[in-house]
Amino acid sequence: MTITPPTPTLQGPAIEITGALHDRYDEILTPAAIAFLTELHHRFASRRHDRLADRMRRRFEIGNGHDPHFRADTAHIRDDASWRVAGAGPGLEDRRVEITGPTDPKMTINALNSGARVWLADQEDATSPTWKNVVEGQLSLRDAIRGELSFTSSEGKEYRVTAERTPTIVMRPRGWHLPEKHIAFIDRAGRRTAASGSLVDFGLYFLHNAQALIEAGRGPYFYIAKLESSDEAKLWDDVFSFSEEYIGLPHGTIRATVLIETLPAAFEMDEILYELRDHCAGLNAGRWDYIFSIIKNYRGRGARFVLPDRSEVTMTVPFMRAYTELLVQTCHKRGAFAIGGMSASIPNRRDPEATARAIEKVAADKKREAGDGFDGTWVAHPDLIPTAQAEFDAVLGDRPNQVDRQRDDVQVQASDLIDLHIGRPITAKGVRDNVSVAIRYLEAWLRGLGAVAIDNLMEDAATAEISRSQVWQWIHQDRTTEDGTAITAEYVEELITGVLREATRSAGDRFDDAAEVFREVALREEFPTFLTLGAYARYLD
User: Fold this and answer.
1) How many Å apart are CA 14 and CA 40, to the nearest integer?
2) Phi, psi at residue 254, to the nearest 5°?
3) At what angle do helices 197-215 and 131-145 cross, to 10 degrees?
4) Residues in Cβ contact with 470 at an 8 Å cutoff, skipping those fewer than 6 apart
5) Secondary structure (H, E, C), 179-240
6) Burial class (CB in 10 A: 0-12, 13-18, 19+), 78
7) What CA–CA distance (Å, rounded) separates 423 from 47?
8) In the annotation, is 460 catalytic?
9) In the chain, which residues have pLDDT < 70?
10) How many helices (H) and strands (E) does the chain have?
11) pLDDT at 344
12) Of the residues 142, 172, 218, 301, which is catalytic?
């Protein structure tokens, strides 16, 4: 079935919904929502494509020996001490613990009952972007914001929101690079392209919920993922300004927190804050995608830029310390919150020893973040909230944040951000773990699951990206394991065979497809910029 705007022009622009329509989808894909998506794409789709082309050029330059640097043409922005960002909106004043997770009804209810200060309602890396997840995630959010959400599992267990105070919702739409293949945009010239996942996710959530959120004493708040430049931030700012005007909200009602999770963005933090200053609440240290971005940009630059086992790339290695300390300093200088990242360790309620190890690791991670000046942090599991909160309570006390801590002691040079020397080896276990984790994650992702507990770690698209990109780089840089084994495509193919042999198979599993996706993104000569793009186009409904 195709839905078009209520009053399309003869020559467009227009939006067409090509995905199947199920129960209640008409509550999200309303004529008003489609008209809004049409306007968003008409005004901003072309600029989105320009920014993606900029990414390709920048990646080509880095790959050919031109290291990123702090821009000379924007030095006046960095040197001007007078400007500040808008800062926290209502309900965002205290963000000491934020829980992240997908937006299906069960996970939405669990997040709202978790006791966290903020819930990152994730339509991006923690969500497999099936058409069902995209639309029904919007339904979950719509119902939750209106106090109407409930869920009964297939086993008959009922889930309801029972918390007296629920977290402030900050919704994360998909990044600029991701399309929405179930919605087409037709421009005035009649050209037909897949819609932008970013504009679809943002537009549907904003149009349906902005007013209800404001009436509840909160607001339309967003996490912005995968930015690579201040030009991309400017594009988002223009989207926000137009959207506020479109429904009659005061300028600056929207608040955005930007994830600094790409290497190019780390060199433009001031500029990103500046372009979003009327709408910006802060920055987040998106650690896992940041590591992936470094590997992606430096994958062909030689042995000096090859990282060891994923488990050795911790937040305490020098280049990660430089990145996070610069983020805190930059945020606080501009009145913005600095939010820490997610430790992958999670508890296992069936394994007390694993739970104890996870809590110990998370406590150390959050103690470091609070001590460094972060104003809050992420967790991926409700059982970790008390641990994280205790570490931030110890530093913050009754204060809602520590933005007043300026970190004038931090002196980060461009070279510090790309000094990747760690001094640890690549091990056979590290290679095997990467292959195993990536395939097992992809198998779940192909079944519609975006956040998956594997070996007592929370894996999402970002951690899977690290795993497959390391394998690609190790092969193409002729690396060997600690015991002298050459890491070749043939060696990795043997590991893939072993993972499939050891997997617990069932009717309808997607392990064979997952292995094929892994081969495409880790073993082929060309390096796909994102593992999800090809898999989305080929496999997801």
Assistant:
1) 11
2) -65, 140
3) 10
4) 295, 307, 310, 434
5) EEEEEEEECCCCCEEEEEHHHHHHHHHHHHHHHHHHHCCCCCEEEECCCCCHHHHHHHHHHH
6) middle
7) 42
8) yes
9) 1-11
10) 19, 15
11) 87
12) 172
539: its two tokens: 């496999």
347-359 residues labelled b (16+ CB within 10 A) or e (exposed): bbeeeeebbeebb
The predicted-structure confidence for 176-217, as pLDDT tens digits, reads as follows 999 999 999 999 999 999 999 999 999 999 999 999 999 999
* Residue-level pLDDT at 9: 45
Active site residue 172: yes
pLDDT digits (tens, 9 = 90+) for 220-238: 999 999 999 999 999 999 9
Predicted confidence at residue 2, as pLDDT, reads 44
DSSP 432: H
What is the SS3 assignment for 459? Answer: strand
- The pLDDT of residue 7 is 47
| Residue whose entry in the numeric block shows the structure tokens 């804050």 | 273
Residue 329, phi then psi, degrees to nearest 5: -60, -45
What is the reported pTM?
A: 0.96
The 10 Å CB-count burial string (b at 16+, else e) for 189-213 is eeeeebbbbbbbbbbbbbbbbbeeb
- Supply the pLDDT for residue 1: 39
Average pLDDT, the chain: 96
- Is there a contact between 151 and 159 (Cβ–Cβ < 8 Å)? yes
- Which residue in 104, 237, 372, 460 is the catalytic one? 460
Strands (E), 304-432: 337-342, 376-379
